Amino acid sequence: MMDVIVRNNVKIIGKGDQTIIFAHGFGCDQNMWRFITPAFEENFQIILFDYVGSGKSDLSAYKSEKYNTLHGYVQDLLDIIEFFNLNEIIFVGHSISSMIGMLASIKRPEYFKKLVMIGPSPCYLNDGAYQGGFELSDITELLDMMEMNFSGWASYLAPIAMKNPEVPRLSQELEQTFIAANPVIAREFAEVTFLSDYRDDLVKATVPSLIMQCSDDSIVPIEIGEFLHIHLKNSTLILMEAKGHYPHISHPEETIRCIKGFL
Question: Where do the AB hydrolase-1 domain residues begin and end (predicted)?
């Protein structure tokens, strides 16, 4: 097995017997957790990593056929857990990582003690009564834009997703993170993210989970939190005051409070 530490740029910080793994969302990297981790370093061992194709991961490990569904990313997460011989971990996932963590917990429930999902969605597409937030044409347009004008796509999406116009540097930072990614891999990850549908898997999940739904999220409509809460047994739903899709960056104090309350 390839060195997972190099492949996923794994970092370990903190002190404590209980392990928390923080997993970033699409278009991001482990640096996105820097406002959150200091609150947990005293009492937890913290594992941070970058998905293959993101941050400082090993780009040579990227294979389209492995990562053309979320299951390639699920396997990488399980590899990290197994590499360090962990079980009963707390998993904190942002956005699509919530589903990656959930799918991993369905495969190996004994590895997981609790799941924390920040801005999760099992399906981003509108489907009859189910309103995921996007029409297929919206997603197609977004993917085309990524292909034709990657930096244009980044500067278009960042402020919409961040949704905190009073603090422009937050959108600027997100835009820079988007642009830093490999455009081909980022587009493939976007496709796997936005066209995924894991609604049927929700009933298989057994690990206690916290759903953190932002009050005004342009990526994940507010109803999705409720939908997840209904279909995920053992789940707790918190409706946050935070706006946008990145509360761990825009509203770290509230994010920390919610996670600590659940733990």
Answer: 19-252
* Structural domain that includes position 114: 4-123+199-262
Active site residue 248: no
155 is catalytic: no
What's the structural domain count of the chain?
Answer: 1
Which of 171, 217, 235, 251 is catalytic? The answer is 217
pLDDT, tens only, 196-241? 999 999 999 999 999 999 999 999 999 999 999 999 999 999 999 9
Q: Catalytic: which of 54, 57, 76, 95?
A: 95
- Residue 12 falls within a domain, yes or no? yes
Half-sphere exposure of 242 (CA within 13 A, CB side): 24
Rounded to whole angstroms, the Cα distance separating 120 from 96 reads 6
Give the H or E element holding residue 212: strand 209-216
Would you say 69 and 192 are in contact if contact means Cβ atoms under 8 Å apart? Answer: yes
Distance CA 185, CA 53 (A): 6
- With 0-12 / 13-18 / 19 or more C-beta atoms within 10 angstroms meaning exposed / middle / buried, residue 19 is buried
Reply yes or no on whether 95 is catalytic: yes
